[in-house]
Amino acid sequence: MHDERIKSNGTREPNQMAHKAQTAATRWGLRSIFSSLVALLIATIILAAIYPAHYGEKQLSFLLGRDREPLFSNLTDIAPSPATSSFEKQLSFLLGRDREPLFSNLTDIAPSPGTSSLCDVFSGSWVFDNVSRPLYKEGQCKYMLGQQACGKFGRKDLKYQQWRWQPHGCDLPRFNATALLERLRNKRLMFVGDSLNRGQWVSLVCMVESSIPKKRRSFSSRRPASIGFNALDYNATIEFYWAPLLVESNCDDPMNHHLDNRIVRVGAIGKHARHWSDVDILIFNSYLWWRESPEIKVSWESFVGPDKNYEMMKMLRAYKIALNTWSDWIQVHVNSSKTQVFFNGMSATHERAEDWGGIADHNCFEETEPITEGGYRVRRSTRGMMHTLRKAVNKLQKRGLDVHVLDITKLSEYRKDAHSSIYKEQTKNLTQHQMANPVTYADCFHWCLPGLPDVWNELLYAYILHN
Ligand SMILES: *[C@@H]1O[C@H](CO)[C@@H](O)[C@H](O)[C@H]1NC(C)=O
Ligand SMILES: *[C@@H]1O[C@H](CO)[C@@H](O)[C@H](O)[C@H]1NC(C)=O
Ligand SMILES: *[C@@H]1O[C@H](CO)[C@@H](O)[C@H](O)[C@H]1NC(C)=O
Ligand SMILES: *[C@@H]1O[C@H](CO)[C@@H](O)[C@H](O)[C@H]1NC(C)=O
Ligand SMILES: *[C@@H]1O[C@H](CO)[C@@H](O)[C@H](O)[C@H]1NC(C)=O
Ligand SMILES: *[C@@H]1O[C@H](CO)[C@@H](O)[C@H](O)[C@H]1NC(C)=O
Ligand SMILES: *[C@@H]1O[C@H](CO)[C@@H](O)[C@H](O)[C@H]1NC(C)=O
């Protein structure tokens, strides 16, 4: 396709690339691993015994239709772990009472810094609104991934598409794709992070796509880890860069990595960050890839050859060091008057229905309504990470760098109904056991589109245009 071009230097992708069959493999590799401590070793043994065998499998998904470039050939990804809720139970059991409670009251989450003193847009409630929602139709967005097109993959209850976020003290501005593209003229906006941020990238592309004539938009992929949507008449690009742990790690290949073997180079970020330096609007996230275990393998060396030298570190401590590495980079390389920097809060997961008063051993499967305010509790580890993130951002703000936390944590926690669940492309044939027990393979990490990530983008839009 002639309108498919590589964005950098205006060079065109060779035609045969553009005509390639459009498949990309997504690997859903989110796994939990417990190691190091004796208690954790026991957990590992239990885990090995009960862990379903299908995680190593590649998920193929048709991404963009025949006339598009592959998004990433064999892109791998974090994946929901159906067994996680059992792991957590085992873990809490093994670690006993000296461990922090896993959950605490959601309403304890402190208000975010950097939000307008007039109205905290992150404090509000979900309002059912089938008049103004959804913002686009699932089938009309070519860029939808197989993990997001829930209607296409069998979901019948479509109310999850029709909830609007209503802040308590004000209204969100109405999303206007043309206004956003005007703002992005001759600019680059880039999401950096894991598959949740990639989902938000897809959402934003879906939100602007319909207002651009087909011939005036294009798609490009820059190896190794970035993809971009281009609005040609505006010379505007909306990109995604894969860096699931923000800093460097052995999971930086979007196609080939294993969450359970991850080793994080907490002090190194340059390999990624050089791709961010000319970007005008940066939206970071990094959460789930840290959260899955209480300790994480940390390396201070470069990843050349086998990763032999690592130490185990408490997850939160490693996260803090990584955020410092990130904020040091921001401080040196970002000019606040040119670049807007955002950091997304924690995208919620809904693996334990008990947490919202649901059936034991269930998860987000068959949930069709959001949680209404009050009573629902958020994980302690999530709060710890949110606190760490705020501290890093506050430090930057004290040094004059305006970084905004988009505090999507709480509003996402309410949306137990909005996950992909079983309504996504299943690229591996399910076992009979799985088919008989849908709850075991429901994806309670990622989100359907149209849906929750659209609201994250409305919040982002409010900041970009009105702050
Ligand atoms: C991933 O794709 C590359 C080429 O794009 C190929 O060489 C490699 O074998 C693939 N890896 C797997 C695990 O399929
Ligand atoms: C919107 O929802 C209301 C209440 O659930 C229902 O009565 C009405 O038919 C719906 N309208 C549309 C267009 O779906
Ligand atoms: C959207 O924004 C454009 C450009 O700022 C403006 O011309 C247009 O009137 C807006 N549309 C709506 C419905 O507000
Ligand atoms: C197009 O946008 C890029 C930034 O994304 C900028 O460097 C370049 O100068 C722009 N081109 C024109 C013709 O303005
Ligand atoms: C920051 O960007 C502004 C606007 O582009 C420019 O005027 C200023 O010189 C830059 N500051 C530095 C330190 O580069
Ligand atoms: C959560 O906290 C709020 C206010 O702090 C309180 O009113 C509510 O009862 C608490 N809910 C639970 C389940 O503890
Ligand atoms: C999955 O099942 C279909 C038939 O239902 C079969 O044709 C296909 O070969 C199977 N794929 C694998 C990888 O087992």
UniProtKB/TrEMBL annotation:
Show where the Trichome birefringence-like N-terminal domain sits: 119-171
Q: What is its main location?
A: membrane
| Tagged with keyword Membrane | yes
Q: Which Pfam families match?
A: PC-Esterase, PMR5N
Q: Does the keyword Aminoacyl-tRNA synthetase apply?
A: no
Q: Which GO terms describe its cellular component?
A: membrane
Q: Which UniProt keywords apply?
A: Membrane, Signal-anchor, Transmembrane, Transmembrane helix
Question: Region entry Disordered: which residue ranges?
Answer: 1-20
InterPro entries found in the cross-reference section: TBL, TBL_C, TBL_N
What membrane topology was assigned to this protein in its record? Answer: Single-pass membrane protein
- Location of the Trichome birefringence-like C-terminal domain: 172-462
Q: Where are the transmembrane segments?
A: 28-51
Localized where? Membrane
- Family, similarity comment: Belongs to the PC-esterase family. TBL subfamily.
Query: Could you tell me what this protein is called?
Result: Trichome birefringence-like N-terminal domain-containing protein
Organism this protein belongs to: Eucalyptus globulus (Tasmanian blue gum)
